[in-house]
Task: inverse folding
């Protein structure tokens, strides 16, 4: 089984980043605009449309506010297995660490999924830092 792990330090408060991650219907507006172009909530899941045209159904496994951890599983053609998690760790007053782990089969999808995760993490970082900067500059 292939496993991808992406980490990014984000210059934004952990609570602010977590609030955007846990807003499950707003990937395309609050968290990764452009990388994700549409998010349609369903009971216990969401349908995600990526900027590259890929559409997947993500089954929500857990949203843990205490640990700032979101776990989900992708259901889409070509995947035999997929489980992933996003976690936010506090790294100081206005800084956090974003950790995204995905385990999947077949192994042949690992490079494509890993590349998409890297792109998504970069967009997430830029979006959250811009939002944090806007909030900090209002004070």
Result:
């Amino acid at each position: 089984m292939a496993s991808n792990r992406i980490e990014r330090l984000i210059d934004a408060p952990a609570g602010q980043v977590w609030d955007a991650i846990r807003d499950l219907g707003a990937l395309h507006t609050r968290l990764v605009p452009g990388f994700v172009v549409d998010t349609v909530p369903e009971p216990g899941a969401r349908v995600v449309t990526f900027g590259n045209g890929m559409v997947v159904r993500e089954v929500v496994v857990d949203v843990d506010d205490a640990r700032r951890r979101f776990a989900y599983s992708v259901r889409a053609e070509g995947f035999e297995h997929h489980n992933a998690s996003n976690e936010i760790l506090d790294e100081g007053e206005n800084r956090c660490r974003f950790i995204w782990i995905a385990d999947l089969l077949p192994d042949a999808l690992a490079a494509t999924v890993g590349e998409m995760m890297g792109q998504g993490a970069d967009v997430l970082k830029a979006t959250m830092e811009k939002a944090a900067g806007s909030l900090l500059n209002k004070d």
Notes: The chain is about 30% helix and 40% strand. The helical segments are 14-22, 27-31, 110-137. The mean pLDDT is 95. Strands lie at 2-10, 36-42, 45-50, 55-64, 69-75, 81-90, 96-105.
